[in-house]
Amino acid sequence: MENVQVKCKVKDDCEHIALNGFPSNSECNHDVCIECLTDMISDCEANGVAPMCPQPLCHQYYTIESVNALRTLFPQKAEFFQRFDLTERNTEFICKDDSVTFVDLSSEFDFSSRRMAIRVLADSDEEVEAILIYDKQGTIGDFIREIRHVLKILPYEKIYGYFIKHEDDGKDENELAQEIATDAISLAKCISELNLTSTSVIHVDTAGIVQRKLSNKTNILK
After folding, report:
1. String of b and e for 175-202 (b: at least 16 CB within 10 Å)?
2. How far is Cα 162 from Cα 10, in angstroms, rounded to an integer?
3. Whether domain 111-212 has CATH 3.40.50.720
4. pLDDT tier at 101 (50, 70, 90 boundaries)?
5. Domain ranges (residues) in the chain
6. Total-model pTM
7. Neighbour tally for 106: CB within 10 Å
8. Is the dihedral of CA 87, 141, 202, 150 positive or negative?
9. The 3-state secondary structure of 66-118, one letter per residue
10. pLDDT, averaged across the chain
11. Contact residues for 168 (Cβ-Cβ < 8 A; gap 6+)
12. What is the pLDDT of residue 158?
């Protein structure tokens, strides 16, 4: 069987042959040659950003699977790749309703004082956004379940992580997001331990986009 060679789609004048099967997760439809990837990695290293599609009109960030492939192709750039969390967390996360939480509905119950509104986003090919109304005294497990419900994330869909970011609060836009721990002990804790504020936004990573490493990497509540 004849091997079909595909031309690189990064630049109109590039005549090199694209790598077969890259990007690994079909993040975009731009076939890329090793020469254009080499230039892209050098640019990303100089600018301190994660690897992305080098096509000028695309610049889609590559997923963990694709960046791990690049790390294998460019061992001389090991120091650059060490800046990123490349642990593959391809898991299907399902919240089970295996516990009952007591809800205070006495005459002194004040819904307005316990009500909180949080902006939630699904970071995927088509970004989905919603406002989630939740109980300030609810559990983190119920909170994550409601996030999945309001964003219409199906039980079998792959989730790479839940992250807290802060917007419009005067902080550095490049500040690292905080990941919410999803182990059994953390899910049973009160949402107040997440220290959410009016500027907090919950990002659900359904695309597996590479995250920069924290200097002291610890998940919230762990």
Report:
1. eebbbbbbeeebbeeebeebebeeebbb
2. 32
3. no
4. low
5. 1-88, 111-212
6. 0.54
7. 5
8. positive
9. HHHHHHHHCHHHHHHHCCEECCCCCECCCCCCCCCCCCCCCCCCCHHHHEEEE
10. 80
11. 199
12. 80
pLDDT of 159-215, one tens digit each? 888 999 987 655 555 567 888 998 889 999 999 999 998 899 999 988 777 666 654
pLDDT tens digits for range 40-62: 999 999 998 999 999 999 998 89
Contact status, residue 37 vs residue 73, Cβ threshold 8 Å: yes
CB atoms within 10 A of CB 125: 11
Residue 141 near residue 162, CB atoms below 8 Å: no
Strand partners, 128: 122
Six-digit token pair at 73?
A: 């192709």
Q: Residue 212: what pLDDT?
A: 66
Total residues belonging to the chain: 222
Query: What b-and-e string marks burial along 140-155, b requiring 16 or more CB atoms within 10 Å of the CB?
Result: bbbbbbbbbebbebee
